[in-house]
Amino acid sequence: MNQNSTTVCVTGAAGYLASWVVKHLLEAGHTVHGTVRDKGRADKVKHLTEMATSYPDRLKFFEADLLKEGSFKDAIAGCTHVIHTASPFLLQGIKDGENQLIKPALEGTRNVLNAVNETPSVQRVVLTSSVVAMWIDNTEKSHYPQEIFDETAWNSNGSLDYQPYSYSKTVAEKEAWKMVEAQDRWDLVVINPGFVLGPSLSTRMDGATMQFMKQLADGTLSMGAPEFFFATVDVRDVSYAHLLAAFKPEAEGRHLTAGEVMTLPEMGRMLKEDFARYPLPTRQLPKWLFTLMAPVFGMSRENARRNIGISLKIDNSKSQSLGVSYRPIKETLVDQLNQMLEAGLVPKK
Ligand code: NAP
Question: How far is CA 110 from CA 100, 105, 282, 340, in A?
Fold first, then answer.
């Protein structure tokens, strides 16, 4: 990896994943221009302002909104690299997919990349996409050789009405590939993370990952959980993958960045070994029963039918060649629950 210190813009710097990206960049000696929607929101940025005190003059904040044209220009000025993570991550309670998800993801990507086009110092952009831009339903595996998902996969099922978050990530990533092709000064490397888990650097609870762990530990699923297979990745590993993508000259294209494939009851049983007093889901609910109840948990019955009990195989060899190593998921889950208990985000038992 090129170790020369440089200036990097991180969009959505106060988010769960981005905060770890910022931390790795500062530790590696870089200067960071972090964008946030509102510098005055102490509840969102406190952990970063505290982090900044350990790295005088190396973490600077800029206000920017994905939906405001031109708003990333100042933050990107003077940067050699841009790590674009900002995008709404909403899985439940979506009332207006177009305005809550698609517009900010797509127009936001355009706004950020237009600012990159206007900034001659930028050499590389790293985009945080997702495995949901590769597939939404495990049934989509039938389109691929040996039913294994890799970087060649693009989801074909998403729409404004079906899994709009996944659709927003797909259209945003496609737009980024289109915009990089239209010029030849900067290049694009994409990280496609699986479901990100692990400790947060903040005490924010608005992210889907923190809500997920809260529901595992607070008894919401104590009756049992469905056999839903998903690809997981530790936040510390996937955030570091963004640095490898930014600074390894040979990095190119997309990277399926996920380690172990797990089901919810498997996670519950793993956590139970260390947190025996907590009402974690250890039993597997029958597919028919969960499919019936799916809307209560914010999932459509169609999504349940296309995923529960459908196994999943991924090929993460490209990310490993980039230098990503995956820690065991048990360590990820235990560290996250411990962090949430310490921060008072889940009541101690
Ligand atoms: P998060 O904590 O909710 O972070 C989302 C970030 O996007 C926040 O910093 C948020 O800003 C910013 N954002 C949302 N709408 C915005 C707008 N209109 N203008 C400016 N910024 C806006 O979620 P995360 O898990 O860290 O997600 C970060 C990225 O990883 C996203 O692109 C997400 O799609 C992707 N990803 C996440 C997972 C996962 O499992 N967590 C998996 C695959 C990919 P505020 O701080 O102002 O709220």
Answer: 16, 9, 44, 35
Structure tokens at 130: 């997702």
Q: Considering the entire predicted model, what is its pTM?
A: 0.97
DSSP 8-state symbol, 286: P
Q: Across the beta sheet with 195-197, what order do the strands follow? A: 195-197, 230-234, 261-262
Q: Residue 195 CA: which ligand 1 atom is closest?
A: 40
Task: List pLDDT tens digits, range 267-303.
Answer: 999 999 999 999 999 999 999 988 988 888 788 999 9
Distance 207 CA to ligand 1 centre (A): 8
Q: Which atom of ligand 1 is nearest to the CA of 165?
A: 34
**Distance (Å, whole) CA 97 – CA 193:** 22
Q: Is 141 an annotated catalytic residue?
A: no
Of the candidates 16, 58, 63, the residue with the CA atom closest to the CA atom of residue 36:
63
Instruction: Please give the Cα distance from 256 to 231 (Å, whole number).
Output: 10
CA 90 to ligand 1 centroid distance, Å: 9
Kindly give the distance from the C-alpha atom of residue 287 to the centroid of ligand 1, in angstroms, as a whole number: 31
pLDDT per residue as tens digits for the range 171-199? 999 999 999 999 999 999 999 999 999 99
Catalytic residue among 23, 44, 141, 169: 169
| CA–CA gap between residue 45 and residue 64 (Å, rounded) | 14
Token digits for 262? 């797990």
Spell out which residues line ligand 1, taking CB within 6 angstroms. Answer: 12, 14-18, 36-37, 44, 65-67, 85-89, 104, 128, 130, 169, 193, 195-196, 207, 209
Q: Report the separation in Å between the CA atom of 203 and the middle of ligand 1, taken as the mean of its atom positions.
A: 15
Q: Which residue in 282, 263, 262, 264 sits closest to 272, CA to CA?
A: 282
